[in-house]
Amino acid sequence: MSVPYFLVVYHTIMLNFIDKILCQFESCFSRKASFRWFVTITIGFMLRSDKLGVTSVIRDLALSPDCYPSLIHFFRASSWSLDSIRLCWFSVIKNSFPLYEEGGFHVLVGDGVKQPKEGRRMPGVKKLFQESENSAKPEYIHGHMFGGLGILAGNTGTWACVPLSIRLHDGLQGAHTWKGAPISLASHVLKVIGDAYRAAQTFGDCLLLLDRYFLTVPALKALNALNRSGPVRLEIVTKAKKSCTAYEKPAPRKPGRGRPPKKGAAIHLKELFASHKERFLETRMELYGKQETIRYYSINLLWGQKLYQELRFVLVEMNGIQSILASTSLELEPLSIIRLYSYRFRIECMFRELKQQIGAFCYHFWSKHMPKLSYYQKAGEPNPLERVKDERSQRLILKAVRATEMHMVQSCIAMGILQGISICSVGKLSSDQLRYQRTPSRGRVSEAAIMAHLRKYFFLFIHQFTTFEIF
Q: pTM for the full model?
């Protein structure tokens, strides 16, 4: 097969990058065979052409069918630790990716994602309420609730939200008393905050972009406790509800007896769009890839019943739409808060690519020791996991949970490697050089284009280049 010279150079750079990243995980495995399976499966996720479970790795890498039992066993093996692999992935991203910074802070993005699952013996499957404007989606589903965390890398026009971790955040509370179960009773919101702070311990001071669902008093209390516990600082930029009520700072205490006031007059933030209309400033800035005219007004107020923490609120009007943004950092400029929140949608793009390209949510890990899930379980009935008393059954169910989370970790790594290749290709390669596209992207090469190209040339080039450690 004749290959253009510029592609030969590009493939060398690409394979060097893959080799460099994956070799750093070898210390996370106590057995060489486990590390080799880790490399095989991760590359399989990068090349897979269908989303039919881990059997796609067998097909797309042309492995022997006899490898299937060993491949399945890898996800439940005891020769690796999820925490050590996650921490290694954080370090790899810090050292190998051009991370975006805003005022000395790295930018994390967090959100939840719900994945429908019909398996009745899958641990963690439960009935979930699904908010969506798409009428084709049902109001309630049975599935897994994940908490996702990513970090922004690249520059304007080459943005990528690199996945850091995707963890099960719900449905396992009934197993929190089991021996060796790393399961917390904390809510989904608090778990996202905790995951972000653990990532910040690797990356340093960070800003965390969240949806309005996460602006709660327990979340701010947990954030303040974490910031007091160590030298790392984590700040939140999020969106407030339209019905949000804040408070002015209390007036100076008057002489006499009595407890000093904790708050001043209540302010309904939505009303400020009309009452403070003349104080709004108008400017043009780039949002979501377009130049937009916006009007904004910034004010620092106390928020949260019995907490009364000072937050910076930014009221924004754009194209007739009114929004209220909030930041725990009082040092961020209003325009920076507006621009940062516009980057939050990058995590939605990350989830889409993980679903459609990597097949991150196409797993089928279950256990016959798991009590069969009832689709008609009523509120107040005990969780199926609470009925499992045998220690061996508990251990095997936890292995199925661990297998699911390992599948997500490897999907994050596979996705991150593709994004790293894409970012490194900016200015050197365009999408239409890799495959035909009716409308080539103007920014970086898409993950789908790189996957399609790898499927076509991967085996040819690993046959020609034998100097790489992992091949």
A: 0.93
DSSP 38-94: HHHHHHHHHH----STTHHHHHHTT--GGGHHHHHHHHH-SSB-HHHHHHHHHHHHH
Task: Count how many Cα atoms sit within 13 Å of the Cα of residue 229 in the half-sphere of its side chain.
Answer: 12
Percent with pLDDT over 90 in the chain: 63
- Rounded to 10 deg, the angle between the 32-47 and 5-23 helix axes is 140
Widest Cα–Cα separation across the chain: 91
Reading the block at residue 178, the tokens are 């089991």
What would the two tokens of residue 219 be? Answer: 């979340």
Burial class (CB in 10 A: 0-12, 13-18, 19+), 173: middle
Cα 256 to chain centroid, rounded: 53
CB atoms within 10 A of CB 143: 22
| DSSP per-residue codes, 348-394 | HHHHHHIIIII-TT------TTSPPPPTTPPTTSPPGGGG---HHHH
Least Cα distance to 346 among 100, 93, 25, 136 occurs for 100
Find the helix or strand (DSSP H, E) in which 293 lies. Answer: strand 290-303
pLDDT per position as a tens digit, 298-310: 999 999 999 999 9
Q: Which residues contact 325 (CB under 8 A, 6 or more apart)?
A: 237, 238, 239, 240, 313, 314, 315, 316, 337, 338, 341
User: pLDDT at position 469, please?
Assistant: 64
The first and second tokens of residue 95, run together, are 């050292």
**Beta-carbon contacts of residue 365 (< 8 Å; ≥ 6 apart):** 75, 122, 400, 403, 404, 407
Task: Record the tokens describing residue 338, joined without a space.
Answer: 């507006």
Q: Tell me the per-residue pLDDT of 260-275, one tens digit each, with 9 for 90 and over.
A: 888 999 999 999 999 9
Query: Is 395 in a helix, a strand, or coil?
Result: helix
Q: What pLDDT, in 10s, does the model give residues 402-447?
A: 999 999 999 999 999 999 988 887 777 777 677 777 776 767 888 8
Q: What is the C-alpha to C-alpha distance for residues 74 and 56, in angstroms, rounded to an integer? A: 16
DSSP one-letter string for 93-113: HHHHS-B-EETTEEEEEEEEE
Q: Which long-range contacts (CB under 8 A, 24 or more apart) does 431-439 make?
A: 433/6, 433/7
Q: Which two tokens stand for residue 89?
A: 């992935």
Decide: 266 and 304 in contact? Cβ < 8 Å: no
So what's the pLDDT on residue 120? 85
